[in-house]
Amino acid sequence: MPLNGDDMVAVGTNVIVRFLTRDDEAQYQKAYRIFAESEQLFIPTTVILETEWVLRFSYRFPSDRIGYALSGLLGLNNVITENKAAVLSALACHQQGMDFADALHLASSLSAKEFVSFDKRLINKAIALNVNIKLVEP
Asked: Residue 41 above 80 pLDDT?
């Protein structure tokens, strides 16, 4: 789908959360109309990251439900995100027990020579999941 900023609507975390949780009917209806009537919707990667955090901490959604919801959202024909492949890769790693933010950081860094981190848990989980980037502890 070609990007055309004149037709594109960017959405924030609270709109997505209302759309996915339907916890406020009036706001859900407005969010639904945005998703149904907009030709192109842009969701920044930062909004996806924050949405995962809100669903996990505020709504106590388990990782499989978050993965299902966000994958479904990104699968809508009118939804565009910055690096869909990285986000979907991060969601797959998240489904296998990796922290979503860590997985997104790694998936977004695949063009780098290596990923440097003091976080041994991140490094060990990434190695266990066979993430395709050299991991280095400084």
From this structure: yes
